[in-house]
Amino acid sequence: KVGRNDPCPCGSGKKYKACCGRNG
Hints:
Layout: no helix or strand
């Protein structure tokens, strides 16, 4: 699983917590 500070798997280049992770 992706951690909050790992790159988001959606390919945006943002951290997961600032991208896909912000809604969950």
